[in-house]
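Question (not urgent): is this output format expected?
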Amino acid sequence: MSRTLLTTPALTGLLAMLSLLPVATAQRGRAPVTPPVTGSLFGYVGYSDTKTPARLAQVMLIKVYPVELPTDVRPAQPQAIAGVAAAALTTFTQTGLDGHFQMPAVAIGKYIVLAQQNGALNPIARIDLDALNKIKTGHLTEDQIKDHLADLTVVTIEEGKTVTASVTLTHGASISGTLSYADGSPAVGVQVHLLAKSSSGIFQEPDIMTLGMASTSTTLGGSATDEAGRFHITGLPPGTYAVRADLPLGLLKNLGTSFKGILALGMSSPDSLGSATKYDSGLSVYSGNVLFRKDLKPFELGDGASFTGANITIPLNGMYSVQAQVKDAATGKPLDMAQVQLMDADGNEILRAQFVDDNGNCIFEYVPAGQYTLSVVNAMDLSGVGKMLDKNYDPKKAVHYSAASLKVRVSDNTEGIVLQVSKPAPAQVPQAVAGDAATADMAAAAEDTRNAGIASGYVAQLAGAGDVGATRLAASRAAMTTDTAAAAAETAAAAVESDASQATAALAAGDRASVNNARDKAASDYSALLVADDRLAKAATDLVTAAKGNAAINASRPGSAAINGLGAQDSSAAANLLSAATKGGTAGYSAAAANEATAINDANTIAGLDSTRTPTFQAAAKAEAEAQSCATAAAAGGSASAAAAALAAAATAAATADGDGNPFAGAVEFGAAAVANAASATLSAQHVMDQLKNAQMVQH
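Got this back:
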């Protein structure tokens, strides 16, 4: 019922395949892989609860890199991949019947010694799932494990030396149950997936590439039920769990459109793949015999406990088909590329998803009666792209559409649903508008509101996506909140500036009563501005956190890491500048200058990676340099307004440099520009309030 992580035939095949890679590389005339400098490792794996050896346990070494990942862990060329694969053979072994193991040639460096065996609790599994989902094989950093060293066996391999290690395992908790249909017959061969509750309160299954609960593959890929509908999941740490049963209804039928859709995204919009990872896994039933994750009934597991009541009954009646077609809202033309997501009524959880066929159609079968949201994401018109391998094939000619959604009620088989999508309006670039300060601030507020709407579209698109999608969702949501908060601050600043203009005009006319009224209103509006700035400061801080998370999860991809890192630096600079504008002092400007120094490097990195993007990111780097210069000058007593304006321009340049290539990073940059513009508006409002005082407008 449970499966080993790698069966002997599978492991033999893997080793055979990997062993051929350097040979194949040499046959192609490429440079041979340089043998690494090595040491050796000798160790023992045993159980602490039974005091017995862990016989025939799998042992692997997980490389731990410095906080900043070196470029050599990001292989992009075939010969580099071959080298990494060959090196992997030296860091995987098996214990003998006495529990001992050897690794005679291990490249020097720091490693986690990870032992795995069915039913055993892996020490790394005690790390919280939220932290584990940020740890990817081959890209583990010292910073990521610094808080978990007590749970891990870490060794440092030195040249020519033998290091010893002792790894302790304990028998973990287990979950078992039976799947049956409503008529009492067993559900045979159905995948059962483990869901664990993280510290954030979300039930999620470990990523297949995530280290952690890997003592058995049943905790990763799911456990298939046997001939009696039974399943068994072992090797679990204490925690709160649930299970999900997936019936792959229509999986094979939709395989062709899924392949076409993923291929189209990968060629024309690779950064959208994170939101396309969920395919139509069919009908899902959760613990408690419920159909929505939010309604599941969890259960608790203690150390080594066995829970045997994880039974699920799968309904057979009250389910219907839902057919929909995606069309261009302007022309009525069916689109040959889109992913349709069947979501819960609130649009928060993706239940199932399908790519449309060439005529824009898709159909969900076995949908229980109820209220749902049908959402369209990654919609494209591929008619102008051409055929793959054809000399005229150009994925950049794909026409992209905005996300859209529609509420539907299912009470019978439903046909003829039309999902209309529109081409997105370009994001409005925040910029100064000719005229008085109040007019400029109101224009900036309107643009920020518009960009908040665009970011909200990304939020709808990414809701319920996987690991990468989750960070993009957080960044998009933070950008939306920041844009909205910035618009509120700019509106309040514009009110102050308008009040001051009225007071000035009344003073010139000798209308003291109107002067006093305008002065009082300016004071009231200024108080509102201070409240709005406090809210914006919180939103800006959240934007920084989300942007850094987006950068961290893309650390293994230099281009994406630099683009998202650029957004993290600009949002940090904007938050620091806002702090300086509202709290005074020069520390914020100095910090912003430091942020911009890193942003310059990020922009230049992107410019050097892709010649097609070199001009735009060189321009962005130049704008970042200007922002750094102005922030440095502000720290020395220069113009704070000039620093804010330069940062807004730099963030805008970064937001538009990649075009549609990374809209989520662009949303972060527009959020940073919004914060900088709001800081500029606040500085302007402060200035006019000072003018009111200096003009003796306090007399009654």
